[in-house]
Amino acid sequence: MSHTLKEFASSNELDLALTAHVVAQLQKALDERGCASLVVSGGSTPKSFLSNLSEQPLDWGSVYVTLVDERCVLESHPSSNAKMVRETLMRNLAAEVNFVPLYIQGETQMNCQQRFINHKVLAGTYDVVILGMGGDGHTASIFPQAQERDQALNLKTASNILLTDPVTVTPLRLTQTRKRLLNTRNLILHITGSEKQKVFEQASKEQNAELPISYFIHQEEINLDVFFSE
Q: Residue 45 — φ and ψ, nearest 5°?
């Protein structure tokens, strides 16, 4: 399966285009199935996009949002992806969106997996998955040096969510696996900056376990739409 690169002159133009694209796909899902699912990444890159998204007129009460990955920290922690989503997306017109966290303090990995397997919306094919990428080529919390890397990338894994130790950074993370993230109607990679562009270009050459994002570029399940700006 190929990937489609969409380049923009500025991050603002990218955010507006990505917002329009995601809104269209969520509206299509709402029209066809009465509900929609959106899986987003954490970090600083998606903040402006998520803020823009919060201002769009959708039936947000029928939209279910969760995370590609999450740090194992309380939601009050500054590094919590859930905290970022609540502060950027879950306000304005999107205040009624249904947010389903990955990390819940005290919950085992098995119970987390089962919670998503049993979810009335998030158990099925996702409508939109938006990946990010680190400067080391990691995506989600599938890090190059993590012991769990190969299991997370393996399309034959039975796991939908894994507890992973990135090794190079702390704390531990929960990540959705490649198999689970590829089960979507729309797969998007959102990256900015020349350094990440170089990493993406390297990963585009071939599958390389040292660059986990390459396994999302080189796969046969679904086309990858890459939204990029300097």
A: -55, -45
